[in-house]
Each structure stands twice: as C-alpha cells, then as structure tokens.
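Researcher: We are triaging several targets before committing to wet-lab work. For this one, the compound of interest is flavin-adenine dinucleotide. I'm pasting the protein sequence and the ligand SMILES. What I need is the predicted three-dimensional arrangement of the protein with the ligand bound, expressed as structure tokens, so it can go straight into our comparison scripts without reformatting.
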Amino acid sequence: MQKVVNIIGAGLAGSEAAYYLAKRQIHVNLYEMRPLVKTPAHQSGNFGELVCSNSLKAKALDNACGLLKEEMRLLGSIMMEAAKVSEVPAGGALAVDRDIFSAYITNKLSNNPYINIINEEVTSLPKGITIIASGPLTSDQLTSTLEEMLGSPMLGFFDASSPIVTKESLDLDKLYYKSRYDKGDASYLNAAMNKEEYDAFFDALINAKRAPIKEIDQCYFESCLPLEEMAKRGSDTLRYGPLKPKGLAKDENDRPYAVVQLRQDDVSASLYNLVGFQTNLTYGEQRRVFGLIPGLENAEYVRYGLMHRNTFVKAPVVLNKTLELKNYPGIFLAGQLSGVEGYVESAASGILAAINAERKLNDLPLTVAPIHTMLGTLIHYISEADPKTFAPMNANFGIMYGANKKNRPETITRSLDAIMKWQEALHG
Ligand SMILES: Cc1cc2nc3c(=O)[nH]c(=O)nc-3n(C[C@H](O)[C@H](O)[C@H](O)COP(=O)(O)OP(=O)(O)OC[C@H]3O[C@@H](n4cnc5c(N)ncnc54)[C@H](O)[C@@H]3O)c2cc1C
C-alpha cells in the first residue's frame, strides 16, 4: 500500500511540510478549504498567503528570526525559496511581494506529482499519519474536533492586521524616504508629525468607533496590540512604539515629534502598509483618523486593518518536542496552532513536523531539533513553558540556552553547525 501523510492546511506550516515530504518522495494528501470556505483574514485561495504584514522580519543572522530563516534555508525551506523570488526593498528586513510569494508556493505544490491537493474543509481527522497545520483561524468545526480530542479547551487570543494603501493616493510632497538610522536602503516612506498634529491624531484615535468584537472574552496578544488599544495606555505610548521618531528625522535640523512608517508591500512599489497600525477601528474611522496623518489625507485603502480570533493549543500540556500530540501517536501539530508565533516560526515548525511524520511512516524513532538551534530552542520552549501562563512564542535569543549579546557570533556558528549535523544524521 502507498505510504501517505495527510496535511491539513496549505498555509505557511502546511506548505513547508508538504514540500519537505514531497522532496523526500513521500506522497501527501494536502487538504485546504480555501477558497471554498473562507477565513476572516485570508484574501485568496493561494497557499502560503501572508495575512497581514509582508515582512518576514530581519535578515541579519544576529537577529533571532534572521538566524531561524538561515536554518530553514539549510533545511530546504519553500518559504525561503519564495522569498528569494519575491523580495522587495525593506532596509534590514526581508519583505516580499505577497502575491508573487504565495503564487510561487502554490505553483510549486500544485505541480508536484507527490502532492494530492484536496480542496475541502476537514471537520474530522483523516485516517493515518496526519499533520494538523490549520493555523490561528482553524475552522470552527475542526476546532471543536480538536477540543474534543485534547480534552481541554483550546486557548485563544486576538491578533490584528494593519491597513494597506496605494502609493499614488499619498501626498509624496509631505512624505520622505528613509530607513531608521539610515540602516539598509532608504525604502520606507515616512510621515512626520509635529506635536499639534500628533495630539489631534491621538485624540481622534482614542475616541474613534471600533468594529464590534463577537467573542465574549477580549484578550490581546501583547506583541500585536491594536493601535487604539496601545494608545489607551497613555499619549506617549505610541511615540515609544510604532510612531517612534528616533533615527527618522528628514535632515539634521528636523525634530519630528512622531513618525509613521509605510513599508513597500509589492514589487512594483504601488502599495504600502502602515507599519504597526494593526487596528479594529471601523473602516470609515480608519479613513478619517489615519487621514489626519500628514501625507495620508486622501489615502486609498486596498485593505483595511482587521482583528481576529487566534487559536492555539496549550502546547506544554498536549505536545511533545517532536510536535507529535502526547495522546495521539502519528498526529502532529505545526504552525501557529502548535504555539509558535509568527510567519517564519510557523513555517519552520512545519519542517520539523514533516521530518517526524516521515520517521513515523518508516517506523523510526522521532527526532527533536537540536537545542542549540533557534528552531530547537523554540520548540523546547513551547513544550516546556508554564501551562498556566502559556502564550505563543516568537524566535528570540532570550529563550536560547547560554546565548547572550557577547557570544552572538559563536551562538550563530554553533546553531548553523548543529542544523547541518542534524540533517546529515537524518539523511546521511
Ligand atoms: C489576522 C492575523 C494577522 C497576523 N499577522 C502576522 C504578521 O504580520 N506577521 C507574522 O509574522 N505573523 C502574523 N500572524 C500570525 C501567524 O504567523 C500567521 O497567522 C501565519 O499564517 C500562521 O501560519 P500557519 O501555517 O500556522 O497558518 P495559516 O497560514 O493560516 O494556514 C492555515 C491554513 O489552514 C486552512 N484551514 C483552516 N481550517 C481548515 C480546515 N478545517 N480544513 C482545511 N483547511 C483549513 C486555512 O485556510 C489556511 O490556509 C497573524 C495572524 C493573524 C490571524
């Protein structure tokens, strides 16, 4: 009988897992419900769609997410391949044209003879070895199935996405190009505000009308707070957060009180997203309030900011470091649902789940990503964190055993060496 791995969800994690297995000549049933069934955030039927920012975060290896991306490159990641062909200028960050990025992934997977794409919503688990990578917006029925299986309620929090505007609708006489402290290319458009302008913007923001939130419990994820929620913490909070003016003065005589940054969102530089402007304001209020920012008075929105429920499991209780569910041998979780946070982290976990799904298929003992790698560190963290306070985790050096600022170069070398040795040990 043909050996097959089922994967639920062709998002970032599911696409990585499918690609990895197909390259190992393992047959995959890849279930994806879009575009037949929509999620509140995805806009297309494409695989590997980026639902909010078009940034895959920093490129530099001395940044935790930069290191994780390099580890993924070594492991043959499809996200890294797609980023290479869709990169747009973004200073020190790796930002992509989201359409080219997801089209690349969709084409690669759709044309692979080892991948059988099944366009339907999964409500109960298929038989056999399965990777569940249905993401933070897992459909309601599958969420109920998982809750029943795991015997404890899933956790949930809110996450938000920022608006995208057309460049031609911006007043380029008021905006200027610059990256913070002139690092990398001057690829961001900046909107500077004086105190008067900032105060007017701030007042409008905290008094603006918000879209109703259906869920009873309002609980925000600290690192992705809606702008208006952040503003409620005090008038200076934004000036120390997304509107920080430091390193963004137009010239040496300029002293902006606050600066809004806009990041290029597509290859042709016709679209820009408002950095850190994730929001739950109603669409009309977004036009009115963000229109108070100098240069954005007549901005045309191709996507408004949104806010959604975000689902993940209590990883320290239900998940092994192999990403296999403790009580369900042969069922693996990957992506944001597993308790990692972020595009890159979600995709990276898909590779580990695939490695172990292959091993399960071949009756080999499961493997753990080496602790001295960023991938290993992240997975160790989510499976060992305190369940009472558990929240999804980004890649960062704070959770990496023995890492500090002084030993960063050694930490990077050790991590990349460990990934290569691991890969050699797995496949020779
Ligand atoms: C609104 C929002 C904004 C975010 N913004 C960012 C950001 O800017 N930067 C960042 O780094 N991270 C962000 N995240 C967090 C996270 O990194 C992304 O959600 C990321 O896409 C997670 O990858 P994933 O593979 O786990 O899930 P996804 O990429 O969402 O993939 C899951 C796939 O499963 C499919 N699916 C769901 N249920 C079923 C089912 N029952 N049957 C079949 N298919 C199903 C979905 O259609 C989807 O294609 C955001 C999350 C949300 C919700």
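Researcher: Any quick observations?
Model: Residues 8-14, 31-34, 39, 41-42, 51-53, 121-122, 133-139, 142, 159, 161, 308, 310, 335-337, 342-343, 346 surround flavin-adenine dinucleotide (CB under 6 Å).
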